[in-house]
From TrEMBL:
Native organism taxonomy: Bacteria, Bacillati, Bacillota, Clostridia, Lachnospirales
Keywords annotated in UniProt: Cell inner membrane, Cell membrane, Membrane, Transmembrane, Transmembrane helix, Transport
Organism: Blautia wexlerae
Subcellular location: Cell membrane
Membrane association type: Multi-pass membrane protein
Major location category of this protein: membrane
Protein name: ABC transporter permease
InterPro entries: ABC_transp_permease
Gene Ontology, cellular component aspect: plasma membrane
Record-level Gene Ontology MF annotations: transmembrane transporter activity
Length: 337
């Protein structure tokens, strides 16, 4: 009897620890059955369509590991993407555009971090306010910037197609290497980088410590305020990377719609990836699978020819189920021991 309990506990422990992989496999199997001809190219496109949300999700994951949240990432994507288009049109430089996107994103994240970490304002309120601010700024400046810089008075930030670097940047956003989309490769590389940072560096251990036990982290000599400021700044920088990839893929940025609900999608990718919203638990690797799971759900809805308006309802139900598993799993494992 004890052996059976031990085996059951081991299975439950595995399922709980790697639930993000099991969830992705289950969703992908459904997609394979509903798709009318699954191809290798179609599978690889999952990486392409997951790139922006996945990269934003990594930043959100770091914030959530400290027990905080950032609701401004979607609006930040629109603001950073729009301004990056302007920088590209002014400079005709891919490198300067990329550097600007990262630095400006880090600055936007730093604004959140200072108010949450140093001023000690609630992250929910701070990032809700900056979400409104960043979206408003994106729309305002699109209407009032020099018309030449945003596409002859358009309500959308548009990259100038007559620039020498335009085609190269667009090819970067839509090209492939050995059938893997470039943007997917960026997502994989960043995932590997932050898996290493969170598991094998002192900084990563401090992030987990802050999220696990705030008072204990302070007593251990960790500068909690600085850690919170840093994770918000890193999150902003990753939104900057995502914004750069967005304009590379789309050659434009709509301040009214770009990034809409992306804060929710990023949080969902984080939760599907097994990171606890209370902080201190989870792995960055799970975010990759969480983001891909959401992408595959979109594809299932399309392949089933369902009304796209039901998309978010299905995602919401899946999110609730995963959270339920996260909450109930430890209780079940406790009873089996």
């Amino acid at each position: 009897m004890n052996k059976k309990k031990s085996a059951s506990a081991g299975i439950m422990s595995f399922c709980g620890e790697y639930s993000y992989i099991l969830v992705f496999i289950a969703i992908f199997i459904v997609y394979a059955f509903t798709s009318s001809g699954l191809t290798w190219s179609g599978v690889m496109n999952v990486f392409r369509h997951s790139a922006v949300i996945g990269i934003i999700g990594i930043g959100m994951g770091l914030v959530c590991l400290t027990g905080e949240i950032d609701l401004s990432v979607g609006a930040m994507l629109a603001l950073d993407g729009g301004f990056s288009v302007i920088i590209f049109n002014m400079t005709d430089s891919i490198l300067l555009t990329f550097l600007f996107a990262i630095v400006f994103g880090a600055f936007c994240g730093l604004v959140n971090g200072v108010m949450v970490g140093l001023v000690e304002m609630p992250a929910f309120i701070v990032t809700l306010a900056t979400m409104l601010m960043y979206r408003s700024f994106a729309q305002y400046f699109c209407q009032h910037m020099d018309k030449v810089l945003i596409g002859n008075g358009s309500s959308v930030y548009k990259m100038a197609s007559d620039k020498n670097s335009y085609q190269m940047l667009y090819n970067m956003g839509n090209g492939k290497a050995a059938s893997i989309p470039y943007v997917g490769i960026v997502l994989i590389v960043l995932t590997i980088l932050f898996v290493f940072v969170t598991t094998s560096t002192k900084y990563g251990k401090k992030v987990y410590a802050v999220g696990s036990n705030l008072k204990g982290a302070r007593m251990a000599g960790i500068n909690v305020a600085a850690m919170k400021v840093s994770v918000f700044a890193i999150c902003g920088a990753l939104v900057g990377v995502a914004a750069f990839l967005w304009i590379a893929m789309n050659a434009s940025c709509d301040p009214a719609t770009t990034g809409t609900s992306y804060e929710m999608y990023a949080i969902a990718a984080v939760v599907l990836g097994g990171i606890s919203m209370s902080g201190g638990k989870g792995r960055c690797l799970g975010i990759l699978f969480g983001a891909m799971s959401y992408t595959v759900i979109d594809k299932i809805i399309v392949s089933l020819k369902m009304d796209s308006l039901i998309n978010n309802a299905i995602k919401g139900m899946i999110l609730l189920i995963v959270i339920m598993i996260q909450v109930a799993g430890p209780k079940i494992r406790g009873k089996l021991k």
